Amino acid sequence: MALPFRYNVRSLVVRWRVTLLAIGAIGLVVAVLIVLTSMAAGFRLALQATGSIDNAVLTQRGSTGELTSGISFDNARAVMVDDRVARDSLGNPLASPEIFVVASLPRRDTGSPANVSLRGVTPRAFLVRQGVRIVEGRMFTRGLNELIIGRKAAARYAGVAVGSTVRMQRRDWRITGIFEANGGGFESEVWGDLDVLAPAFLRRGGYQSVTVRLKDPRSVTAFNEALATNPRMQVQLVQERKYYDDQSQQVSAPLLALAGFVAIVMGIGAVFGAMNTMYGLVVARTREIGTLRALGFSRWSILVSFVIESTLLAAAGGLLGVLVAVPANGISSAAGGANFAEVAFAFRITTPTVVTGLVLAVVMGLVGGFLPAWRASHVPMTAALRS
Q1: How many helices (H) and strands (E) in the chain?
Q2: Cα(117)–Cα(102) distance, rounded to whole angstroms?
Q3: What is the pTM for the complete model shown?
Q4: E-assigned strands of the chain?
Q5: Residue 292: its pLDDT value, please?
Q6: What sign does the dihedral 288-387-368-316 (CA atoms) show?
Q7: What CA–CA distance (Å, rounded) separates 365 from 274?
Q8: What is the pLDDT of residues 343-365, one digit of tens each?
Q9: Which residues of the chain have pLDDT under 50?
């Protein structure tokens, strides 16, 4: 004969102080896990939204990012004129040679300096990357010390409004516009004329990267293999979307590892807390347990009943943790990327993250409640009635 479910609910309500303590401990674990995971998800989604599946990024072979890459002019030209690269209506290759450096701008909130990505481009960049568009001000003028800044960077740094001037490399640079890039990582960057930025930042020997539009996106693997077999071509070609996804893993993977470590450490504490709570309930309800046994309820019924109570506590804690973490969704932040410059992103609480948190809570409840439930089911009936 099974104990009715309302018995478990009423037991938790009657002992509401202990119940709230256990719920709070488990809720804290779930909230921390969700918040840390949402940071990793937000950073990953910000970079995954960068680029197009039709494009490929050319960098130096073996480099881990554009900052450590160097491509000679000859290698860049050889790739740009390849037949696998798409052409515009005039027959010019859709290829964007670029330099990439790290500059410093003051944060808007603290005024302290922070690294920002500075990209030197040509007009071809806006043909290759069709999602980039000016939303305020105007495009920089070629040959002048003018810059445009991504929307996320404009919101994060001070003194970068349209018309303002920033000081870099002992030169004054005028901000002429703000651009968007479909919410991707480019919105955390500052762009300027390649021919002006290259000498200013001593990048005269070549490029850091070349982004090309391919006629057939499926040809990127064969294209890269052909480059790898050519001893004169010390370059590698990766699909643009995959390139930035790989860049995101260098930050999101440690964040996920941190989230897992914190969840395990705090989860162990929460399990022991739930276990102590349930043990205390067993001791306090010894006579009650004996009465249940005298009424004909089996040990198995009592075991299942106490496990259900522990699981209810954990599920309530999981829901509390989700409610505590939800306000973090959409909060803007920034993290250092693979190129040592900040990438702005928003916390993203996804359905898998919420499900993972709730599953973790239930597991903590099951693990923390089983041993006390086992003890409760094996309390001698005569000893319980005498207590």
Answers
A1: 12, 12
A2: 5
A3: 0.71
A4: 55-60, 95-106, 113-121, 133-137, 146-150, 165-168, 171-180, 189-193, 209-213, 235-239, 332-336, 342-346
A5: 65
A6: positive
A7: 7
A8: 666 778 888 888 988 888 888 77
A9: 340
